[in-house]
C-alpha cells in the first residue's frame, strides 16, 4: 500500500540535492505532489489553467465565497472511511473535527425510489421489489431472504449505474449467484427500521468468496455499489473544498492560476512547456514536470517526445462524464415529508437526488442536490442549455417533490457538467468490467514516466474516481522524483520499485 512519504535524510532534505519541479494542475493530485515534494526538500511550483484550485472538488456557495450560507458539492462529495490516505491528510491538515457522516442512497427509510405506478418509500418498497425481481427469474424456488437480497442488489445497481450500463448488469444477478446466497442465513444483514432491506456492504465484506463468484462485469461494478451504499462514508461539515484550500495554504512554492499548458515537449535533458496566459503563449524549460491533469485534457495538447505506448494510453483512457444540479431552496421542505437526509433514486434524467444536512441558519434556506447523473445520462443533460436543463430537472423532480412548484421555493440553481468542462472533459476514470490484470496494466502505463515528465491523478491509481486515488498517485510520483537519477533518465523505472510495491 502507498503511504505518505517520510522526510528525507539526503542533503538539503532531498536525496541527491533539491530538484526544481513544475506541477501541472492544482487539483488534489497536484497539491499533494507539491506538498510531499516540498517536505522532501525540493523546489516546486504549480501551474493551473483555471482560476481555482481543487480540480474536481468544487463546493458552490450560494451566498458567495467566504460567506455564511448553504452550499452544494458539485464535485467530490464523500469519502469512504476506509480510505486511509485521505483520512490521513484530513487529520494532518487539522480537519478531523469537521468529519461528519455522509448519508447515502436508501439510508433514509422515507426516501423514494420508482415503482410500477409511481414512487415508493424505501420502507415500503420491499414487497414490490421482490415481486418484480422474482418475476424475472426462471425459477422462484429461493427463500424469501434470498429474493430480498437479489431485489435490493438489483435496485442499488439500477440507482447507481447509467441506464445503458444497467441493462447488462441486471442479467448478471442470476441463478448462480442466488444459489450461493440461498445457503446463507441473511438475518444478520437485514437493516432498516422494519428490517426489510439488506446491508449489501456488510454481506459482501463477510463473504468474499461469493463476491469473487459473481460474473466479471458485476464483480468489477460492485466496488462502486458497495462504496456508494455503505454506512461508513464521511463528508466535511464546512465543505469538501476545505481539503484543497488547506493544502494550497501549506505549499510554499508559487501556485499560478489562469495559465494553461497547451503543449509538452519531452527532451533528454528537460521538459518544455508551452503555456498560454491570455493572448500570450510562452515556452518554459523545466528540469522536472509532474502532469496531474486528466488525460482527456492532455490529449488535446501538442505532445512531442512521448513514446507510442504512452500516447496510446493517453488517447484511449476512458472517462465517465458527470452532471450535478443543485437547488437553493427557501426551506428544507423534504423534512416535512419525513426525509431527514440520504438520497432518493429518482430515475429519469434526474437519476439521484440528495438531501444534504441543513447545518446552518434555517433563515438562509437549504440545498437540495436535485440531480446527480453519470455516463450518457450526464451527457444528455450537458447537451441542453442551462435554462432548458434546469426546467427539465424541475419538471421531473416535481413529480416526486411537488413542493418545488410553490412560488419562491427555488431561490437559485447551480450546476456543473464535468464532461463538458474544458479543464476536465470528464468526471473520472472508470474501468468497470475489466479483469484485474488489465486494470493494473493500464494503471502502470498511465503512471509510467517519460524521462523527466511524471504523471499523477486518479487515472494513475488503483482507486480511480476517488480522492484516495489522486492522493495515492501523488505520493508515488513524489517518491519517483525523489529517487530519480538525472544522469540515468529513462532507466529509473526499471531500477527501483514504486512506493506502492515497496510497501505492499
From TrEMBL:
Pfam families: Amino_oxidase. The keyword Membrane does not apply. Substrate binds at residue 78. Residues 28-481 form the Amine oxidase domain. The keyword Oxidoreductase applies. InterPro entries: Amino_oxidase, FAD/NAD-bd_sf, Flavin_amine_oxidase, Flavin_monoamine_oxidase. GO terms for biological process: amino acid catabolic process. GO terms for molecular function: L-amino-acid oxidase activity. Transmembrane segments: none annotated. FAD binds at residues 75-78, 261, 458. Its cofactor is FAD. This is Amine oxidase. It comes from Streptomyces spongiicola.
